[in-house]
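Practice problem: predict the structure.
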Amino acid sequence: MNMKKKIFLFALFLWALLIGTGYLVGNYFVNYALMRGSDGSPPPACAKIADPNLKAPHLPKALGVREDWNILSSDGLNLRAVCLHPKLEHPHRWAVLVHGYGRNKDFTWDYAEEYLKEGYVTLSPDLRGAGDSEGTYLTMGDKESDDLKLWIEEILRHDPDAKIVLHGVSMGAATVMTASAKDLPSNVTAIIEDCGYTSAYDMLRRSLTSCSICPKLPSCPVWISSAGRKRESLFPIRPPLTVWRNPASPFSSFTETRTNWSPLK
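Answer:
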């Protein structure tokens, strides 16, 4: 075997080793950031970046009637939500409240309170892979936005004349913005996007870097193939933007440290 062939085979071996190692490491990061625990707990990365002292608020005082809803997603997951009716209800006013990364519907009760005071019926879903809903992986707003359309259809089955506000926070904000590009019915009259992100890829990279899991995340490019193996179309997720290049709110204590602020300077 001549020297050129040996060099070629050695380089090929190193390339295969690099790709294989990157795939395994990338697969680990996907699980770390997006896979819920076997006990239904949030992904491990959430515990690293979330405030451990932050507790879910209590059910709203303006609550009249509570209903448990459920639907079946397009890929066969049983999804659950809680519908809250106010004590004094204005006809056809609805608000869908979408929680953020690593949270569940209970973390929407504080702003549900304000909607209920104004006579809105609120619907707070547990996104796939969160709370009481089925699902193993979060998809950072991609498949969640498809699920959101199904919840809107469910509302319209109950109230065909509903006027619906979509209100999402963090990953929920990305969910409502991504849904806005999916031909929503005219019953959706407003969308509130609070502390979303321009790229799920960049958001997760910054989150994991802030956890000191891997300072520069050299394996990030293989996340796509790792996620694809799990049949989840995770990247690139870029919610449509209409006003801000970076729709991050300075009032958010949860996402501001992981947001790229340079476009706002």
